[in-house]
# Entry
Amino acid sequence: MVAVDAAISHLQRRWRAASKIGRHYIAPASKAERNVVFVAGQQRSGTNMLMDVLDRHHRTDVYHETDPRAFERYQMRDIDTIRTLVDRSRASHVVIKALCELQRLRDLLDAFPRSRAIWLVRHYRDVSSSMAKQFSTTAEALKRMRVDPAAGRWRGEGMSESVRMLLLDCIMDDTDEISAAAFQWFMRNRLYFDQGLRLDRRVKLVFYEDLATRPNETVRMITDFLGLGFDPSLTTDISATSVDKKGNPPIDPRIEALCRQLLDRLSIVAQTQH
# Structure
């Protein structure tokens, strides 16, 4: 039965993709109507879920981070390449992931006049647990960054001096993967404030927990913000089973305090944006 359901789901996705391509060719959006949407956030924060939601919309052209046309090794290609993809699209909304590019989200928005961004936030404990299971190099990368911020590649880009001081204070030789992942959550989500995006009307802050537990309400808010019509079918595959799975992973108390304070700040912003 599971195999049958999977096959049906696969066929439905294929049909939706073919139908969307047909719509775009029959009634293409003009370049003047074209919008660029950046789906941003720290890794393991639900960006895949939102990308899948937007991919179901008939007015979108979506580029996942595994798409070699727009990405190389999960990092976005140069602006000229992205601009070419946008210009060639027939959709009204071109959606592109921006995870390793959080530190230059404002520059990306400035590069495309009709652009907006959704910044997804998920509780740092769930993110840390998921990252520790998915990756095994976060602690090593942050430890190298104590000596040279550039050693962390995209992780260290855009890092303020105050965050660098916190990195030196919190990341030790014995820091484990859970605590390192939590610090990366803090470091990357802090970029939202460091870039002044709090007051940028092109950026909407959305909590993963709201998307998972109140999908219709949250997706409607997102599609309204992006200028897309809402359809209940967009939320069909959203599940809340991954919410609050954090348990009680041990996180360095200093790092947890930083994450908790930042989460509170982000929560206040999200409430005032609704």
In short: The first strand starts at residue 35 and ends at 41. Residues 2-26 form the longest helix (25 residues).
